[in-house]
Amino acid sequence: MRQRTRTAHDRRPRVVHGAAVALLVSLVVAGCGGEDTSTATTSELGSPTSSARPAATPTIASISTTSPATPIAAQPTVDPYEGIPLVDHVEWTENVDGARLLVFPSEAGRRTTYPGSDERAWQEVLAQSPDADAPGMRDQFICHWDWARLVQPNKPSWNLEPWRPAVGYPDTVQASCNPGGPER
């Protein structure tokens, strides 16, 4: 497998991963909002005892005794969609603002979480349309890859426009993948 060199253009915050881990940890620690179903009673000697039912949620003590090699959530180690296209097809159209590249992700492209699949998919876009290699277009694509798949998983196509300003990945995300104005 070919290793790719990461560039400054390629480095984007992994906010999603950090937020997901924080959410998982908070759910485990908080017990997903579950109630403790154990009841405390006092024995005849006056010492507290608990009922036979165990607590419904894990405690920090029970979490810390699990094997550190057991991940809470793991990314796949083998690409389940290797050899399957992540981009079904692309199509250039015109709208009031100018050229627009419609990217139609395949079902595999909508489902994969394999590390590096974003770059593999972008290379598929470039193979189908070399003109897509314009300033800002990759940021728009990666924004759609990272966010549109979560927010609108069944959106038929992702629209990339070469006339939009190249503002960098964080500002592209801030603009809902459409820097320079809303989609029309």
What's this model, at a glance?
This protein is of the alpha+beta class. The chain has helices at 15-30, 60-64, 107-111, 117-128, 137-151, 169-174, and strands at residues 40-42, 48-50, 87-95, 98-105, 158-160. It has a 3-stranded antiparallel sheet with strand order 3-4-5. Strands 1-2 form a two-stranded antiparallel sheet.
Written description of the protein model:
With 184 residues, the protein is an alpha+beta fold. The chain is built from 6 helices and 5 strands; from the N terminus they run H-E-E-H-E-E-H-H-H-E-H. The strands form 2 sheets. It has a 3-stranded antiparallel sheet with strand order 3-4-5. Strands 1-2 form a two-stranded antiparallel ribbon.
Short descriptors:
single chain, 184 residues, alpha+beta, 3-stranded antiparallel sheet, two-stranded antiparallel ribbon, 6 helices, 5 strands, disordered N terminus
- What do the pLDDT scores average to? 74
List the helices and strands in order.
HEEHEEHHHEH
Shape: globular
Strand count, sense and barrel status of the largest sheet are: 3 strands, antiparallel
Terminal Cα separation, in Å? Answer: 40 Å
Radius of gyration: 24 Å
Helix content: 25-40%
Instruction: Tell me the strand order in the biggest sheet.
Output: 3-4-5
**Count of β-strands:** 5
What fraction of residues sit in β-strands? 5-15%
Q: Pairing-aware structural class of the strands and helices?
A: alpha+beta
Query: Count of DSSP helices?
Result: 6
Which helices and strands occur, and which strands form pairs?
Elements lengths: L14 H16 L9 E3 L5 E3 L9 H5 L22 E9 L2 E8 L1 H5 L5 H12 L8 H15 L6 E3 L8 H6 L10
Antiparallel strand pairs: 1-2, 3-4, 4-5
